[in-house]
Amino acid sequence: MRATLLIGFCFSFLMSFPQKPLRDSLIKEIEDYPTVDSVYIDMLNELSFEFIKSDPSKALPYINETIRLADSISYVSGLIRATTNKGNSFWVVGLQDQALSHYLFAVSLGAIDHPVDYARLNNNIGEVFKKKKLYDSALNYYNEAIKAVNSINRNAVIIMCNIAEAHLLSDRIDSAEYYFNIGLDMANQDKHDRGLANALFGLSEINFKKGFLAEAIQMQYQSLELRNKIDDVRGVIQTRQKLSEFYLSSNRIDSAEYNMKQAKVLAGGIQANDLLLEACYMQYKILTVKKEYQQAARVLNSYQMLKDSLVSLEFSTNVERIKSSLIAEINSRENQLIIQSQKEIARINRIRLIFLSIISVLLIIVLVFIYFFRESKRLLEHQEEKDFLIEKLSLRNKNLKEFNSVISHNLREPLTQIIGYTKFYENKSSGISTDDIVKNILRSSFKIDQTIRDLSTVLNDVEPDSKDYKKVDLRRIIREVVENFDEKLYEVKPSITVDISDNIVFKSYRPFIRDIFHHLISNTIRFRNKNRELEVNIKVEQSKKETTISIQDNGIGMDLKKTEGKIFKMYQKFHAEIQGRGVGLHIVKNRVDLMKGSISVVSEPGIGTTFIIRLPVS
What does the angle CA 466 – CA 472 – CA 478 come to, to the nearest 5 degrees? Predict the structure, then answer.
């Protein structure tokens, strides 16, 4: 049955990487592990993966907890892996569209910076497109996966077999045979049992198409033996189905029926609804050949019911997931904004109390002249405190207005689109396909999610306490930030100079300083002049009152007359051709303000840009 091949090797690629043998030992390790860190999250991901292979429903609680913990400690690689596992849990039960949405979301988390995860995701996305019979699109993703695997010298046999399968399904037999043979050679060379099983499976199908039935059956049994050896349950089911198809073609009904029943039992055991659907269809064909038409009709009816239920479950689950996620996120952010508003009201009341206290002090000073000089000094101090609080309150109010504008535009627009496409779905005669509606709803959902994340980054920032200010090694921070951009810097090959005197003692809040350097150095890379080598000059000077940090580049620069008053606002982009969201400089300005500093910019188109940050000496 040609459609059986469409299940492919998505899971095979994932399981080609090293795995710990037993779930029980993983559970024991997790229970004994003392803290939540990257190692703990990696173990949870591994345990989730083991459950996906045998019982996907039990995997979901582990996956959801792993996503929560990875996000809480900002462990990007662990979050990508957990999101991928969630897609896998939908894939193995036949919900390909659900799986695709999680794979694409995992890519958006920054998977391109993690070659193993990036290769895995591109392979899995290729498998979804192959399932949808979009073979050329599938090949594009497989090629991206091959590039990522080659960049880290990993074995690419599984992806090679997937490429061969895509050619086979599009009736390019010669190309398919060529790639399967390459995969066979790679598997033999590295003693890769899973890759060898997949290559034999594909070559068996080619032999069958060429009329060499005996050779095809022999290769399938070789593939079956290997898949049993490595406990690849989905692979065993596919092989049994293929043997059933081969035997049925030669009218060996008993053998065909035996292999079909084996496949059906195994598919039901691991809740692989897509494979169970294939087994039901094969059972129908066998009963038809046996002329048991009444039983065949019942099986066909079961097949259609299962197929319809999968389609219905795919759509309803997707819509409910999006709806629940949006409602939860919006309610959470609304509550945060309400809390922020209440805090601002409380601060205004405190300012009023301070003002009344100052008036009382002035009256006392008039009445008690002997304390005049002492009380005048005290009054001055209170006045300065009042001015500082008013200035701080004004800044907060300004930020709240800006956030309100962002929420009004960046959340309302995609929400309106979701409502519109939902009405299109209810109107069956709208002319828009269900797939297109779901894709547009997903696209709008991603926009909402990104906006909420941006707002959360800014709203969650609070002014550091004085005890948080510690001695900061600026050279070390700059080195860490530059190392974080290793891959991008390798492509750009910039010249970076750092001028910091040894006698400078700098005390500040380290997380904010690191964020500032991260965003500004990122800007030098993104807005570089591609016609010349990038030069970045970082200089730190210090006086008795302030520390001055300047970051100068020779990039494309900007016209400050056109950007006046906008450069540090959220979602402001002045170079449409360069990718970015317009959030980085707003975060930098916010960090500087919270540390009671100032930031200015000098820039000229075609010459370059200099950011100058002044922070008080603590």
Answer: 135
- pLDDT per position as a tens digit, 458-506: 554 567 777 888 888 988 988 888 887 766 666 778 888 999 988 888 8
Sequence-distant (6+) residues with CB within 8 A of 172 are: none
CA distance 317 to 406: 30
Q: What's the rounded Cα separation, in Å, for the pair 246 and 256?
A: 8
Per-residue pLDDT tens over the stretch 40-70: 888 888 888 888 876 777 788 888 888 999 8
Residue 79: C-alpha distances to residues 117, 148, 318, 580, 618 (Å): 11, 19, 21, 22, 38
- Phi then psi for 471, rounded to 5 degrees? -60, 130
Same domain, 454 and 419: yes
Strands 495-500 and 535-542: parallel
Kindly give, in sequence order, each residue whose CB lies less than 8 Å from that of residue 116, ignoring residues fewer than 6 positions away: 17, 148, 152, 154
- Split into its structural domains, the chain has a count of 2
pTM for the whole structure: 0.44
Look at residue 247 and tell me if it is in a domain.
no
pLDDT band at 310 (very low <50, low <70, confident <90, very high): low
Give 447's pLDDT tier (boundaries 50, 70, 90). Answer: low
Q: What's the CA gap between 395 and 403, in Å, rounded?
A: 12
Q: Which two tokens stand for residue 565?
A: 């008053």
Residue 326 has pLDDT above 80, yes or no: no
Residue 547 lies in a domain: yes
587 domain residue, yes or no = yes
- Please give the pLDDT value at position 248: 86
State how far the Cα of 14 lies from the Cα of 234, in Å rounded to an integer.
13
Query: pLDDT of 147-178, one tens digit each?
Result: 888 888 777 888 888 888 888 888 888 888 89
Answer positive or negative: Cα dihedral of 186, 192, 194, 197.
positive
Instruction: Name, in order, each residue with C-beta under 8 angstroms of 80's C-beta and a sequence gap of 6 or more.
Output: 106, 109, 110, 111, 114, 117, 121
Which amino acid belongs to residue 431?
Answer: G
My answer on whether 371 and 391 are in the same domain is yes
Residues 410 and 376 placed together within one structural domain of the fold: yes
Which of 430, 459, 488 is the endpoint of a domain?
Answer: 459
Distances (CA, A) of 415 to 323, 329, 360, 427: 10, 13, 53, 18
What one-character-per-residue DSSP string does 286-298 give?
A: HHHHTT-HHHHHH
The pLDDT assigned to 600 comes to 92
In terms of residue numbers, what domain contains 343? 317-459
| 137: Cα separation from own chain's centroid | 21
CA distances from 36 to 20, 23, 521 (A): 20, 19, 31
CA distance linking residue 133 with residue 440, whole number of Å: 21
Angle at 552 between CA 551 and CA 554, to 5 degrees: 150
Amino acid at 70: A
d(CA 354, CA 360): 10
pLDDT at position 549 is 94
Residue type at 426 in one-letter notation:
E
Q: Which tens digits make up the pLDDT trace of 508-559?
A: 888 888 889 988 988 888 888 888 998 999 999 998 889 999 999 999 888 8
